[in-house]
Design a protein that fits this description.
By secondary structure, this protein is mostly helical. The longest helix has 32 residues. It contains 4 helices and no strands.
Length: 132
């Protein structure tokens, strides 16, 4: 059960992040020349990236709540955000039979943050290319 859950959650996370990447690279106008528009474009990219990350961590939190790993939504979301961000305070832990998924969430979060940084670098490279 845990392995199937992990595979499903990772695939859903990749779908969310792929959608975000498509939005940034295809929908947001990357060919702006005004400094103010560049700043607003960068704000839009960061805000949508944060939204994607919160949605992905929320997906794990919903799973934790669904399997009753935690008694309330706040604890599920708190644990998920701490795990996804790889902070891992340890003040809240999963039941023993779900602990593997918490570690996998940390790895997934690290990969998704790295992916977001790669997209940001691609956007900034386009900006640099426009200025030359």
């Amino acid at each position: 059960m845990q392995l199937v859950s992990i595979i499903i959650l990772i695939n859903l996370t990749v779908i969310i992040h792929s959608t975000w990447m498509f939005f940034v690279l295809k929908v947001i106008n990357l060919n702006v020349e005004s400094v103010i528009r560049i700043v607003f474009r960068n704000i839009a990219i960061i805000m949508t990236a944060l939204f994607a990350h919160l949605l992905e961590a929320g997906l794990f939190a919903a799973f934790y709540r669904y399997v009753e790993a935690f008694s309330d939504c706040n604890t599920s979301l708190y644990f998920s955000l701490v795990s996804y961000a790889t902070v891992g305070y340890g003040d809240v832990t999963l039941p023993e039979h779900w602990r593997l998924i918490g570690g996998i969430e940390g790895l997934t979060g690290a990969l998704m943050v790295g992916w977001s940084v790669a997209v940001l670098v691609a956007v900034l490279q386009r900006l640099r290319g426009m200025s030359q």
